[in-house]
Amino acid sequence: MTPLPERIARREFLARNTLGLGALAFGDLVRRDADGGDRRRRDLAPRAKRVIWLFMAGAPSQFELFEPKPTLQRLHGQTLPPSLSQGKRFAFIDGADAKLLGTERRFARHGQCGAWMSELLPHTAGIVDDLCFLRAVRATQINHGPAKLFMNTGFGQFGRPSAGAWVLYGLGSEADDLPGFVVLQSGSRGPRGGAPLWGNGFLSTRLAGTPFRAQGDPVLDLQTPAGVDPTEQADFFSTLGAMNELAAGTHHDPETEARIAAYELAFRMQASTPELVDLRREPQSMRRLYGVADDRPSFARNCLLARRLIERGCRFVQLYHADWDHHGDPSNHIGAPLDARCREVDRASAALVLDLKQRGLLDDTLVIWSGEFGRTPMGEVRQFLGRDHHIEAFTLWMAGGGVRAGHSHGETDEIGFGPVQGEVEIHDLHATMLHLLGFDHTKLTYRFQGRDHRLTDVHGRVIRDILA
Amino acid sequence: MTLRRLALASSWLAVCAGALARREAAQQPVAFAREVQPILAENCLACHGADPDGRKAGLRLDTRSGMLADLGGYAAVVPGKPEESELLRRVTAPDDDERMPPAEHGERLSGSAIEVLRRWIAEGARWQGHWAYQPLRAVEVPAEVPGLAPADPPGHPIDAFVRARLRRTGLQPSPPAPAHVLLRRLALDLTGLPPTPAELREFVSGRTTYEELVDRYLASPAFAVHWARHWLDLARYADSHGFTIDGERSIWPWRDWVVAAIDADMPFDRFTVEQIAGDLLPHATRAQRVATGFHRNTQVNQEGGAKDEENRVNAVIDRVNTTGAVWLGTTIGCAQCHTHKFDPVSHDEYYRLFAFFDQTVDGGVSAEPSMLVPRNDDEEAAAAAWESEFERLQAGYDDARDRAAAGFATWQPARAWGSNGPELRPEEDGSYRVLGQNAVYSTYVLQGRGGGDGFAALRLEALPASGLSAGGPGRARNGNFVLQHARLFVRPWREGAADAEPDLPWRRLPFAQARADVQQDGSASGGKSYPVATAAGTEPGAGWAIAPAFDTPHVAEFTLEQAVDAGDWELRLELQQEHGSSHCLGAFRVALGHAPADDTLVPDAWSAAWRALRVHRGRKPRMPTTLVMQARQHPRTTRVFHRGSFLDPRHEVRPGFPANLDCVATDAEPADRLDLARWLAHRDNALVQRVTVNRWWQQLFGVGIVATENDFGLRGAPPTHPDLLEWLVAEFRRVRFSRKALLRRIVTSATYRQDDTVDSAQRDRDPGNRWLGRQRRLRLSGEVLRDAALAISSLLETRMGGPPVQPPQPDGVFSFTQSKKTWQASTPPDRFRRSLYTRIWRSSPYPFQAVFDTPQANVTCTRRSVSNTPLQALTMANDPMLLELAEGFAGRLLREVQGDDRARLDRAFLLALGREPRAAEVDLVLGHLARVTAAHDPQHGWTAVARLIFNLDEFLNRP
To answer: Strands B957-958 and B778-779, how do they pair?
Structure first.
């Protein structure tokens, strides 16, 4: 029998260096045997070590937030020229009949870089010199579910691994007592598309994002069961470990070692996770910076939690905030509901960037702020004013992690319908993210069903212009 | 075989000379399928494969004729002459500009790969089709090989194949597993439940033989429950529609059909035919129609903005791809957008398969059709009576409607759309049903060829429909609509003319007059009036409306100022509806003809027939329903979708089988799903049979003989034991496709019964157990773990069938779903049913199963991934559902075993693990028991022991 210190060292190795969430799974071994399996090579100098993705689920309107278009204001009320609308697909409106809609929001230039920003995002306006805007991003899917899938997995249907799973697959986790890929959610409901947005696809299940619940315990079954006191719980885990050690000595199955490690991590998570999510441990000033008022679930809490997660070695944190869809219905239009959404995320988004910067974490943490597509320059008229889904061009921003600060890439035409230069596809965004993390996106592959799959499929090019 | 090999080698010797050649001649000739084809598939076929679009230099290397083709004085391959073969010259070219594959596509070929190609060409470039697509090959059972420990039991053909291969690796088979280990394996594999102490006693004492226990387990209902779950993975079964709304659906009668079919050992060919096309069988029974639910397990996107036709097409695509994975073991999905790069399914052939599934009435945003599922004779009679009466009334309604429209011909052009988002779905009766976005205002446009016989009037039927608010015919909340203007245009028909063709202008056909059966009159109440003449444009006004005569058919008839003569016309009808608040038509039909003088537009017979139909719908007997496939009466034309997009249909295709996968001799051209089903189930379809037996093998050994169970194509893994796979298929045919007989054959082999211990030789030389020198420990599924805990705690409720149930789950599971679900935990005994019956919401699967890798039911799953995570540890250690079972287990031990703790512990181990505890284990467990009992009481102490046992690595695995 292997001496105990060596066994523990091996388990530590498996638990930490592989993924932080267990050890080599049997399914993976089989896949590798059968299929050729994984190819991961980090062959570029990494600029970023981790990613925080602030996902505005429902798709914010670039025309109300980022893109003042004087021509659009002038043409307000007119229909789109047929040369633009022909053959284009919208979810609800009719491209030929819909009328252009100027914005009622006021815009001003901010910072050294002079980026335009609307009055709806005053805090974000204060950090524009740390941000890099992509202003001509093109999406492919017209409905929310498929579009979010595409944004996350590079494909509009179920079955592919999410970007977070790919990153964890390539880099592993540095977290000792937490999952390496965590999903946080705020707003009225979960994002359209659901669990496949952070799914592992055909990669190992250990690479899937772990959704933390917004209230109470962040994962299910974290609490010691009712009636079991801490002494019994500790006794349970140590007795179980000893029993499983005996078993490992008889049949020599490496999976047993992995399971012992998994139970040890589970026990540590029981202790560490409540501390992680207890934001009262943060100083009052920090909670105020983020706008965390109380213990209720909020985007602000999740931003602060995201920083605490990456401090503890978490590799990929994704935040979803719901209800950015504004079609013109009473609860979703570009008036009061949009004001409310912006209030919910603006202060905390900016605070996260400032806080990371203060702590020296922004240099190697990539922050992405995006929806799944944009909104039309034409209005959608229901009971209120709204804008329909628009895939020709939209705006997002990134910060830290080796992207150029105070920079803008790409531009749309005078009414913001489509790109005129610096067009970026979602595969390009993925390629660039992987590049910043030290991967050639064409070489981070996994063999499945006879094909080497990539996050960028057969597409993607690194956006050189935004690299610092 | 050996003789042929010798002959080949000697003829080759005659051609070549020299020491090198003699050394090579001693080797076996290169095996094309195993050695050459993988090199070509990996490095060449992406550009030189079956796909004509991507093919470079006109060269294809996936067929022999392509390889030998004259490329202008030279050829890629010249048999027998490596030095003249361009293929070899290019893969060895020193210059990067010349070498293949090009630098941007991949690395240079390795020296050994080049050597294989060189030898293969030198040996004459012998070609074989891909093994998996060939007819069944006859194989002989190898003779017992010397040098191995004797097989126990001796003489099983499976062992002969495995041992012959094992001998070549130099490994020894493992000894038989100890009796209690073997029985635990067998019981868990066949029934998903651990063996009972009584069964263990019988078997260990030798009173009952292994074979008797195999038969007992195969005959038990638990077998059907357990093996049905495997099939449900393939079928992507769930109790909800999926996507974000994820509404509830009723399709559990199909799940019960699967259990019953497996329990009755329905032969796999019939099992296939009934699920693919049971509804098309002559005199199809209700059960055969229920069986077609297999392909109704597709998802439905009910999100606002989701398109009906897009939903339907996505469902059909899923059916094609699932059929490809489940029956053909082929990744057919690639051919949706382009010809498959590696496997022999062309873009057209994909849509020929698509055509089989394109002829159903299902799909779209509504999940219909469904059928009644009676549970007893009384319900059977009630269902039959209701259905036949419904058919009679429907026929009566159709007849009354058509009579009323005498002299008119229905016009249903291919193109029909509405502004602001609604979708106009053409129905089989010639009408349109308006779906999707309930637009505030919308103009409907119908455009296409028509009116060829000439016409003088246009007839618009505004139809009531179930599903419309207040019965319709409008989509406004009260069932009304306001047709402001109807405008008709004509121009000569020309194929492919643009909507606004400059040299082919539209000519407006003004109306002279109009009449309608009902015109909304507000004069009495001081409100507005909506006469039809205003819609015809002959009088100014607000348009035509019908309040308060909702939920009944109406007709407006518009007479042209000037009749249109016979001719080849294209027509365009615009129905403008801008009243607001969704006052748009919900269902309507258009006809052209010559108006009779003064007929009643809506005769009483027609409106009475509608009322009767509506009353009858309300009397639908209350009993379960299930989603089924239902064929259309009028076939759709299937077209190839360019690059996979349904918005870009191109040329027409007929149903057909992929030529290269077709080893079944057929003469008739296939027409419908039943032909497809019979082709899949055909006795000669070796591919389907290989894929099926391989998946069962995988279930019992963890990995199939073909490790890539969903990819038997060129890039899949070759079989580790090709002859054994062929033998299993032959055996499958011999036992007439009996699942139980084939499984019995496998589990009675010595290979299955081996020990699972990994010795160092095994670990070093065969870590993945490819050569089957041992059995393999397999982590149990979430379903089996819970079921085993239920059985051990004696709480298991074995009642089968019925609607899904809800065992307890932790609070807050739904915090990530878009629409919140309710989960009212069932009370006993439903609380303790087998996990097969646990409700499955696609958007939030039961967490205990999800954490143990139960697939999400979005797409077919041919093999579950097996993970090992701390979240599983947290679940097993802390989940209240499991703790309740641990309490039950403790109660049972205290109740059933009088006396000392040691006796109870022995009993606990026997129940859960099938063995006695070892001394070191006794010390550890009794220590834990003593400490917990001292702090609490014996029930608490034994609950702690039960919890400990549920968490043991040994409990979590099947040995």
So the answer is: antiparallel
d(CA B617, CA B624): 15
- The secondary structure element, H or E, covering residue B869 is none
Which chain B residue lies closest to A177 (C-alpha atoms)?
B870
At residue B64, φ and ψ (nearest 5 deg) are -70, -40
- Which backbone phi and psi does A82 adopt, to 5 degrees? -55, -30
- Partner-chain residue, chosen from A23, A225, A255, that has the shortest CB–CB distance to B878: A225
Across the interface, whether the CB atoms of B306 and A21 are under 8 A apart is answered: no
Q: Could you tell me the two tokens for B789?
A: 């805990």
**Amino acid present at B294:** F
ipTM of the modeled complex: 0.84
Joined together, the tokens standing for residue A266 give 């589970």
Per the listing, tokens 């293929």 go with B87
Contacts of A280 (CB under 8 A, 6+ apart): none
B911 and B197 in contact (C-beta within 8 Å)? yes
- Extract the tokens encoding B88: 């070899």
**B210: number of Cβ within 10 Å:** 17
In 3D, which of B393, B468, B479 has the Cα closest to residue B432? B468
Give Cα separations from A338 to A358, A398, A414, A458, B943 (angstroms): 30, 21, 24, 37, 54
Q: Residues A159, A164, A169, CA angle at the centre, nearest 5°?
A: 85
Amino acid making up residue A423:
E
Which residue, chain included where needed, has tokens 């918005």?
B647
| Residue B660 Cα to chain centre, angstroms | 22
Write out the DSSP string of B877-937.
Answer: HH-HHHHHHHHHHHHHHHHH--S-HHHHHHHHHHHHHSSPPPHHHHHHHHHHHHHHHHHS-
Residue among B708, B864, B873 whose CB faces A266 most closely:
B873
Q: A168 near A183, Cβ under 8 Å?
A: no
Which residues in chain B are contacts of A159 at CB distance < 8 A? Answer: 858-859
Contact predicate B129/B153, CB 8 Å: no
Ordered per-residue pLDDT tens for chain A, 468 residues: 344 444 444 444 444 333 333 333 333 333 333 333 455 666 688 999 999 999 999 999 999 999 999 999 998 988 887 777 766 777 777 777 788 999 999 999 999 999 999 999 999 999 999 999 999 999 998 888 889 999 999 998 777 899 999 999 999 888 878 889 999 999 887 787 777 899 888 887 678 888 888 777 888 899 999 999 999 999 999 999 999 999 988 877 878 888 898 899 899 999 889 899 999 999 999 999 999 988 888 999 999 999 999 999 999 999 999 999 998 888 889 999 999 999 999 999 999 999 999 999 999 999 999 999 999 999 988 778 999 999 999 999 999 999 999 999 999 999 999 999 999 999 999 999 999 999 999 999 998 766 789 999 989 999 999 999
B-contacting residues in A 220-279 (Cβ below 8 Å): 220-229, 231-232, 235-237, 239-240, 242-244, 246-248, 250-253, 255-256, 258-260, 262-263, 265-266, 269-270
Gyration radius (Cα) of chain A, Å:
24
**CB–CB of B951/B876 below 8 Å?**
yes
DSSP conformation letters of A85-129: HTT---SSS-TTT-BB----S-EEEETTTTEEEETT-HHHHTTGG
Closest CA to A285 of A351, A201, A212, A378: A351
For residue A465, the one-letter residue type is D
For chain A, say whether B780 makes contact (Cβ under 8 Å): no
Confirm or reject contact between B22 and chain A (CB < 8 A): no
What is the rounded distance in angstroms from the CA atom of residue B131 to the CA atom of residue B915? 45
d(CA A126, CA A122): 7
Q: Does A283 touch chain B (CB under 8 A)?
A: no
Global confidence as pTM: 0.82
